[in-house]
Design brief:
Number of helices: 6
Low-confidence stretches: 3-15, 34-39, 145-151
Number of strands: 2
Helix content: 40-55%
Mean pLDDT: 75
Strand content: under 5%
């Protein structure tokens, strides 16, 4: 089996540059969007659109600066404080360095993981994104207005109106019952009679 060719390498992950592509991906155009009802799985050969790449890069940078760095620095500072206080013991050979580095690495990954929901929401808001569509379907969301659904159909309106009227009738029926007396003792405990 031949190793994948990197002849289509077009840059790095630095801002303003493009990401590396394998030769077979560089020659192939981006996959067309499927109709909303079609369920085409996103496999390893999926090539993200420019807008999806932009969101990936944005998520990567925001998760690093807004979550990973603060959590990592905080956990490293807390670990160093606990070592200097004597709550944690330092390594006889390496001192506090291994524990502080471990706390920093854990903070880094915790920050990346904590930003995952926010990043998924950004992809769900993309209009012409197969990845966003897959995330919306996975979460069981109906597409928001403007995504092929201009207004509620008549059956949905009727069910909403009947639900609202039922809840109003139930609410008014609850107030027709007499209120029970609430007793209170000298300690502030309350109960109904």
């Amino acid at each position: 089996m031949d190793p994948p060719s990197l002849s289509g390498f077009t840059g790095s992950d630095q801002p303003g540059e493009t990401t590396p592509l394998r030769a077979e991906q560089a020659d192939r155009p981006a996959a067309p969007l499927q109709p909303a009802g079609a369920k085409a799985p996103l496999g390893m050969d999926y090539v993200p659109s420019e807008e999806e790449r932009r969101v990936f890069q944005e998520c990567n940078q925001e998760s690093f600066w807004y979550r990973s760095v603060p959590i990592s620095v905080s956990s490293m500072a807390l670990t160093q404080f606990l070592i200097s206080r004597g709550t944690l013991t330092a390594s006889p050979r390496f001192g506090s360095v291994p524990k502080v580095l471990f706390a920093g690495a854990c903070g880094y990954f915790a920050g990346k993981l904590s930003y995952m929901k926010t990043c998924q929401e950004k992809f769900k808001r993309l209009e012409n994104s197969r990845l966003g569509e897959a995330l919306r379907q996975r979460a069981g969301h109906r597409p928001p207005f403007g995504f092929g659904q201009s207004e509620l159909n008549e059956e949905q309106r009727r069910s909403e109106i009947s639900f609202q009227s039922d809840s109003q009738n139930t609410h008014s029926a609850q107030h027709s019952y007499p209120q029970s007396k609430v007793k209170k003792n000298k300690y502030g405990d309350t109960w109904e009679e």
